[in-house]
## 1
Amino acid sequence: MKLEQIINNRRNIKPQFFSGETIPDDQIKQILASANWAPSHRYTEPWRFVVFSGVSRSSLGVFQSTLYDETISLENQDQGKRDKLLKTPCLASHIVAVIAKNTQTPKVPFVEEIMAVSCAVQNILLSSASKEIAVHWSSGFMPESDAMKTFVGCKSIDVLLGFLYFGKCDQKINKPGKRFSSIQSKTTWR
Ligand SMILES: Cc1cc2nc3c(=O)[nH]c(=O)nc-3n(C[C@H](O)[C@H](O)[C@H](O)COP(=O)(O)O)c2cc1C
């Protein structure tokens, strides 16, 4: 596939559509290696990843559903949402928590570290799409909370940007998507 086709047909695929097949760890390592070639100002390379596989997937599910119980008042709890938090991690083969390290490098504002990590994530998404591996990008449950950051191993000074759920899929994963407005309407030429 040509790069442009991979970019245009890469889709966010929800774990409900995953087949349950386990992806070999080596393939996930190859995909993560593509993240390391993202650009970063002053070579800060601020992307950090924590991989959940095997039984650690269920510990993520138990942790986030317990956090839900503890933080959402009883009258506002939604059993469907809580159930999803508990069970969704085990629908994936691997889950990767994405962290932006605050390297505090002079002349590199933190927003640039987040931009660099976003580039690293796009490399991951495109590398996965080229291998027919489905990925779902989830913000996660309360990613800014101390409890979630501590669970993942994200320092308080750093930012937990979300979770990437990886899986195999029986259906076609690379396909046309939708956008609500054209690139022309988002571009000004001077
Ligand atoms: C920073 C970020 C956070 C996202 N968080 C979620 C999320 O929590 N839940 C979700 O269903 N999709 C999430 N997405 C995925 C978007 O919903 C998806 O990219 C969008 O619907 C466009 O679909 P496409 O990527 O297939 O073109 C997130 C995407 C980004 C970039």
## 2
Amino acid sequence: MTEYSSSKKIKPSSDVVSDVRQLTLDELIRPRQTEHSLSIDRAFPEEFVNDLSRQEVFNKHLFRPNTYLHKWWARRCGSTFRAILKQFAANHECRDYYAPGGLEGMTVLDPMMGGGTTLHEAIRLGANVIGADIDPIPIVQARASLTQVELAGLRVVFDRFFADLHDSLGPYFQTECPTCEQTVDIQYVLHGLRKKCACRNVVQIDQYDLRHEDDAIIGICPESGEIFRNQNGQKTVVETLSLPTGMVGATADLITKAEKECPSCGQKYEELLDLPFYVRYTPIAIVATCPEHGTFFRSPSEEDLARIKRADERRSELDFGPLEDFRVHDGPKSGDLLRHNVRSYLDVFSSRQLLYLHQAIRQLRDYKGIDRLTLGMLVSTSLEFNAMLCGYKGWYKRRPGAIRHVFALHAYSFQYTVLENNPVNPRKSSGNLQLLFRDRIERGRKWSVLPVERKIGEDGKRELLKPDGFSLLGVLFQFQV
Ligand SMILES: C[S@@+](CC[C@H](N)C(=O)[O-])C[C@H]1O[C@@H](n2cnc3c(N)ncnc32)[C@H](O)[C@@H]1O
Ligand SMILES: [Zn+2]
Ligand SMILES: [Zn+2]
């Protein structure tokens, strides 16, 4: 087990726990009045916390971005934990949710710290903290998010790291503008799932609509395979889709997920389970932005397919260590991968995605300390948005390019339309490094220096308050490991 501690001089205190053990059953079920009893049981402001957490629960990453550096499961609302911890304040005035501090001189132990919500809240209230977890990710996340560092310095480090990544990977993630032929960075590539029946090969996607805009729909025509723009009932062809002839050995028809069996031979369409997972998909559309002609959808050209092939050719030379380390073991969730005949975690990444990961790991060796921790966590968390398990939500007009990330359903789910993201796109967009740096690092660091709390007024309106008289990072400076 690994440990994170904010202080080297921890005075363990188990007073509270031993007092509870001495209580009789009668005392336990009665509202307690004793000086040493857990005040949380007596005075926890349930309704108040319910109202706050109802607002926070779907926006936890926006309400407390400092704990959201990396994906972790089963996170609770920070407001709930702030309210719990506040009950331990010796000074009753400090028990008010919006009052600063209250736990100065105390030590809070979270032996299963997970996402770290308790640690972060306890530090804000002035406590020393000790955190531990059986998994290394919570530890590294706590170290990376709780170590004091200038945000401006991190930005410089990230810019250098990103520029180097873009230099080496950019050529794999590019395409040509269909209007001016200019080579530009792609935003993402949509792939369809290859299947077959007794008489033909098909490519199955969620739906033929690729994007709903204010005044137009961009779609793929199932009959002709063309990408078109439909504006006020007038169809303009953007690009002709020619589904590549590949390992299946013949051209394929485009179908949607609603079509389960072949109308000609009556057989159910079957997945190509003998192929590595990433090979079961084929590109159907590329999305990019030309500085002159704006965002476009296009069919993969020969050159685009050659870019993918070049990455595929390098795949076997990428060394991530022993293959055994990536073997999928049976488990409540991973069993779903095995049922789809996915035996290695490496197979859920396209060759370009693996090239990205490989290059990022190589570059990380040039960094040290907090810079390396921060960049490492950023790359690791980016995998959630850069795998062939990612789906496409971007057809809806308010969410251009939005990704259904790997753990959106807290389980492995298998997509018809897969979104292969470009992590090194210099334009910020869903799940790429530029956006993740802003959301996970900049936002978190700024919040740490100037945290805010929500107050719900009588009229139900939210007010933003800055209750803490000290910054999270200021306190950490004192207790840094
Ligand atoms: C729900 S999270 C805890 C949330 C956290 N206490 C908080 O306040 O935000 C549960 C954590 O327990 C950790 N865990 C499970 N079994 C453990 C063990 N035997 N020893 C240490 N940590 C463990 C898991 O890795 C996971 O991160
Ligand atoms: Zn152009
Ligand atoms: Zn058939």
